[in-house]
Amino acid sequence: MPDMALLYRAEIRPTKLELIDSWLPTRSWYQGPAEPGVRRVSACRFDDPDGEVGVETMLVQAGDGPVLHVPLTYRAAPLDGGEPWLVGTTEHSVLGKRWVYDATGDPVYLQALATAILTGGGEAEEFVDGDDGQEQRTPAMTLRGSGTPGTAVPTVGPIEQTTDGDPGRIITGTVELVVHRVLGSADSDGPVLTGSWDGGSPTVLAAVTLR
To answer: Nearest 5°: phi and psi at 50?
Structure first.
């Protein structure tokens, strides 16, 4: 069965972009105005096999600056030990209060990212839940891992060390993941995840190395 993400037609307060706007200036890798006024460039979803955590790859831009890679996760309860990665909380008109995290600190995202890269996977199919049932929509961005289908993927496990920079580095007992933040010139050795949007050329978003 293909990976899928179920979305809702809902009001979100504050919006995801408003949360990102407040959070970006606190990041070491952000260069731009104190009030970014970000706009959404593109986005797509990964699947959480347990159906509990929303996992989104978000690309944003502040003014005429570079495209920034901001992966997010959405949870119905706080992530244990996740305070350093908390972007903020929001009220979802269907799902209630949601805790929004920088996904580089969320094990569900890290597992999805490593799996996509190593197995040649991509974004999830998107379905919007409305009054007339579930309606499929086309994701705005295409993701593709450079690995091989059927490759065994280790359990990523607890985070041992992180670097909040560009790129961000996340080390666990089994993998080292690299997440590029400022897009356009990044290059990585080994298995990578690329993203394509608006008909542009594939851009490297992340990479993984087995330990």
So the answer is: -85, -5
Q: How are the residues of the chain apportioned to helix, strand and coil, as percentages rounded to the nearest 5?
A: 15, 45, 40
The pTM of the full predicted model, rounded to 2 decimals, is 0.91
Domain ranges of the chain: 4-210
At 69, list the tokens: 């890679």
The model's pLDDT over 29-56, given as tens digits with 9 standing for 90+, comes to 998 888 899 999 999 999 888 888 999 9
Span 67-108, pLDDT tens digits: 999 999 999 999 999 999 999 999 876 777 999 999 999 999
Integer angstrom CA distances of residue 168 from 13, 47, 97, 158, 179: 28, 22, 28, 16, 5
- The Cα 178–Cα 46 span in angstroms is 17
Q: What is d(CA 75, CA 169) in angstroms, rounded to the nearest whole number?
A: 23
Pairing relation of β-strands 125-130 and 4-8?
parallel
